[in-house]
Amino acid sequence: MMKRLLLVLSLAGTTMAADAQTNQTIALVIHGGAGTISRKNMTPAKEKAYRETLNRSLQAGYAVLRKGGTSLDAVEAAIHVLEDSPLFNAGKGAVFTHDGKHELDASIMDGKTLKAGAIAGVTNIKNPISTARRVMDKSEHVMLMGQGAELFAKQQNMELVEPTYFYTEARWRALQEAIKEEKTVLDHTGDTTGALFDDQIFVEGKKFGTVGCVALDQYGNLAAGTSTGGMTNKRYGRVGDAPIIGAGTYANNATCAVSATGHGEFFIRSVVSYDISALMEYKGLSLQQAADEVVMKKLVEHGGEGGVIALDRNGNIAMPFNSEGMYRGYIKANGSSQVLIYKE
Ligand code: ASP
Question: What is annotated as the active site (predicted)?
């Protein structure tokens, strides 16, 4: 009898502990790139398509968190939706290099263990974020590049695609335009007239279309991930900030999770994501203060255009950007969500 009572009591204790854990706040934030995204360049059809995909991404990540999944799994799930869409400069919609190819970069970081994985300059991996995750989980390295990364992806049974998978008409035309102008343009800057690609859903002037996600799970763990095709007309194996831990991506349970989008060279030099975390860690700034300090002051002073999404372990969200717009959205524990595009 006593034994049974003890058993019941200990089971009750287990349940309470589990409940206490699951009462943690969960939250997820995404971005789909920053840049010259203004109402005058937008049509109702374009806006609808972007909003729908961003919402699907939020729901995919939220579904993972809701059923007790980890922030890393949620980040991967949310980014898959964006990588599989032609609207964003990542995965399917990646921009063209100068040579008419695609070179994709991605990274992911675990705020609990400070482990990270990244890949750069890959040409045949359907969902780069998942290979970055494998680098973190299944290798002793942090960053793999080019053919080596592709071989690793193959050995990890990642889905590989033919280069033609990444072909989209609008990105191709953006490259031709960029080559004609003979200057490196960022993402789909190709439309200089504003009229040329009017029929193309994702050409709306200068825009960085990288995608990213930060998430907080019910165990109190933060994670961040970023995936990109880089810059239209890039050459010489150029790699931006997206796969660089501390620049485009950073996560630390003690401070925050950050994913960036913008002119990568500036974000690398300013070590944007880590700088936000460091301001919280060493100066005691709040998430919003730290993110604003780096994106709205430091980057602006240095001439770096773009923005970040950031999340702390209390579920506070910051999404500052110094460009005209940034595709972004968040979803909170109770399922309330919002997708934003312009300065609102
Ligand atoms: N940050 C990316 C890069 O420089 C571009 C982007 O955000 O779209 O590669």
Answer: 210
